[in-house]
Design brief:
The protein contains 21 helices and 19 strands. Helix 1 runs antiparallel to helix 2 and helix 14 crosses helix 17. With 670 residues, the chain is of the alpha+beta class. It starts with 5 loop residues before the first helix and ends in an 11-residue tail after the last helix. Strand 2, helix 5 and strand 3 form a beta-alpha-beta unit. It has a seven-stranded mixed beta sheet with strand order 3-2-1-4-8-6-9, sandwiched between helices.
């Protein structure tokens, strides 16, 4: 080990960690130090991997050798993924904003908005149709509801809201076929694709169409964002603490891919030039991730693409752990299908960086297999004595520790607070059993080429644990705990073990790292009630309350609201006996910015000199409905203020300890 004592190695590690941490602090402000820490990480990983190959591979028997090869292959695969990842972030990319002023002659392209739907309910569709219809745009834009559910009620809804309803005789090629049918019956120069659960903001077209003044632009993509809590946020009691698990990809990675004209089309919140789609024969079919393939093929034809990194449309994230698994299973299988049908390496017209980026995106879905290897390696060593690496503690501290510490700091540097490597480890651990199974099944042609629609708009008062989905994680967690207990007993000399105790130390640390993520993963299948059928949006607009005969009862401010109801805080100065005049079930009219909205009081709580009141709307007019949608789901991007999340693992654990066992109590609806 370069003839270094263990004490000298520890001194080296401490000095190395201090230097890297100083660089990390500087990297928060300066790009040159950000690149420096990335380079240090890359060099440290190369040194570590060379050492691993030359000095730690087990050769004593075939079982150990196979285990060693599998672990080393997982490390090499992870290194390739991280290399491309850091290559993307080597230079901060920010695309210049383009507005409609780019069209010097004032002639704006005609726009068709496609809302692809299959089984979404009327309330969800009403939101997006209303928002899409009322988007601000000085040119011509038409909305088309492409209904693959063949539902009469959706046709009636479309006619009521004044948009075009499109049906077809079959459901061939699922969503891609539905969109292609839309192309056949429309003629707009630009096509906006929207999933039915998404809602475009009022300025969506104002913030996107300007890029098409450049005749070479084939499509633009804006990030998918979400107005509800995903299963990670909700099931881990981390609402307001951690971001949606897709935010980092949607708002950071996509922005960096844009520097290489490799922005990925993600199926919604995008605008296409019709000519670009015609160049590739329409939306790609034959795979269940038609979006990724469509974007890649447009780029292969030489079209420019752009990522508009603004929150221009929000929608519903999967609301249960089972729905999340269904969605990611589809994405994983779809990426393997794309690799099989349009392998980026061999797709004519792509640049070298485009090939690398798209192959990296496909490769990412294989990382679930890598994670499974990382989870099982210390288990099989301590429980069954199967080696995957033979290394001394001194060797680990000299070669592995520098790579480990720089990997943590480098990731946290480039993520700029949107994500942490510990949180990423939790996400990857949660998904590993299911994604690895999906990828292997698809690679072996064992899965059906079926487009599974993710459920949206789930609301329930049930509390339950999804044991079927939890079983893979629970089995790995139990095995990890058993291995950890045995490792501790070995360290104290209580249980004999033929291998050196230094190897036990290494694997005990490894298990602790794995268990920290597995413990959170085990909470993911615990589903708790989601009572509200629609998300509430906080607001503080002034509000006045009147009786049906016009008497002013109170005034104050909104707390939150949606298209179903509103909550507000009022003063009692106008009617001192407000709580006697207005009770639950009373009908009132609230006035917000000149809009008079009738409702029934569902909660009326008096505290000190204030009244906390909630109403459910009745007889909501189309005008008032459109106004509420414009001030909630479709609030202009220039007004909307995004939440800044902590994204700390320790904060998640604290929140779980405080809140989890409360769900065993029968909750009250409200």
């Amino acid at each position: 080990m370069l003839n270094l004592s263990f004490q000298q190695i520890l001194i080296f590690d401490v000095i190395f960690a201090l230097v890297v941490f100083i660089i990390y602090r500087l990297a928060i402000r300066y790009q040159i130090f950000k690149n420096t820490i990335i380079i240090i990480y890359w060099v440290a990983m190369v040194v570590y991997l060379v050492w691993r190959l030359l000095f730690t591979m087990p050769h004593d028997n075939i079982v150990n050798l196979i285990a060693g090869i599998l672990l080393y292959a997982a490390e090499i695969g992870g290194f390739f993924l991280s290399t491309v990842f850091y290559l993307l972030f080597a230079k901060k990319h920010k695309r210049p904003v383009k507005t409609l002023a780019e069209f010097k002659d004032g002639k704006y392209p005609t726009v068709n908005v496609f809302i692809a739907t299959y089984n979404e309910d009327e309330m969800i569709l009403s939101r997006i149709i209303t928002a899409a219809k009322n988007m601000t745009y000085p040119g011509i834009h038409k909305v088309y509801v492409l209904d693959d559910g063949h539902r009469d009620e959706i046709k009636v809804l479309s006619e009521k809201l004044g948009v075009n309803y499109v049906n077809r005789d079959n459901n061939d090629h699922a969503k891609a076929g539905n969109l292609n049918n839309g192309l056949d019956v429309t003629d707009g120069e630009l096509i906006v694709t929207m999933d039915a659960d998404m809602v475009p903001r009022s300025d969506f077209l104002l913030r996107t169409i300007g890029y098409f003044a450049d005749e070479e632009v084939g499509f633009i993509q804006s990030p998918q964002t979400f107005f509800n809590n995903d299963p990670y946020q909700f099931n881990l009691f981390s609402e307001g603490l951690i971001a949606n698990d897709q935010d980092f990809f949607m708002q950071s990675i996509e922005a960096q891919k844009d520097a290489y004209n490799a922005t990925m089309y993600v199926g919604s919140n995008a605008v296409f030039r019709r000519k670009a789609l015609e160049d590739i024969g329409g939306f790609s079919t034959g795979v269940i991730t038609e979006d990724m393939a469509t974007g890649m093929l447009v780029q292969a034809k030489g079209w420019k693409t752009a990522f508009v990194n603004e929150n221009l449309a929000s929608g519903l994230a999967p609301e249960t752990f089972g729905d999340l698994i269904t969605q990611r299973d589809r994405w994983a299988r779809g990426n393997i299908q794309v690799a099989r049908k349009w392998n980026p390496i061999f797709t004519k017209g792509l640049t070298l960086m485009q090939r690398i980026i798209y192959m990296d995106g496909i490769h990412y879905w294989v990382s679930g297999i890598y994670k499974m290897i990382y989870l099982f390696a210390p288990i099989v060593f301590l429980l069954f004595g199967v080696y995957s690496l033979r290394a001394s503690l001194a060797g680990i501290m000299l070669f592995w520790f520098p790579a480990f510490i720089t990997s943590q700091l480098a990731f946290n540097t480039v993520s700029e607070g949107r994500q942490t490597i510990m949180l990423t480890n939790v996400y990857e651990t949660v998904m590993a059993p299911y994604m690895s199974f999906a990828v292997m099944r698809e690679a072996l042609f064992l899965s059906k080429n079926k487009f599974a629609v993710t459920r949206k708009g789930v609301n329930t008062d049930e509390t339950y644990y999804n044991w079927r989905l939890a079983m893979p994680v629970l089995v790995i967690l139990v095995l990890s705990i058993l291995a950890l207990i045995k490792g501790i007993l070995i360290m104290f000399g209580i249980v004999p073990f033929k291998e050196p105790v230094n190897a036990v130390y290494i694997n005990v640390f490894w298990l602790c790292y794995n268990i920290s993520a597995l413990a959170l993963a085990a909470f993911m299948p615990f589903e708790r009630p989601r009572f509200r059928k629609a998300e509430r949006f906080p607001d503080n607009k002034s509000v006045e309350v009147y009786s049906l005969d016009g008497q002013k009862l109170g005034a104050g401010n909104l707390n939150d609201w949606n298209e179903i109801g509103a909550a507000m805080t009022l003063n009692r100065e106008i009617v001192s006996n407000f709580d006697q005049v207005v009770s639950n079930g009373s009908k009132v009219i609230i006035n917000v910015e000149g809009h008079s909205i009738e409702g029934i009081v569902s909660r009326n709580q008096v505290k000190d000199e204030e009244v906390y009141m909630a109403i459910s709307y009745v007889n909501l007019s189309e005008e008032n409905y459109a106004y509420i949608i414009s001030q909630t789901y479709a609030l202009a991007s220039t007004i909307y203020k995004p939440i800044r999340y902590n994204n700390s693992i320790s904060v998640i654990f604290l929140s779980l300890m405080r809140n989890h066992f409360k769900v065993f109590q029968k909750p009250k609806k409200g």
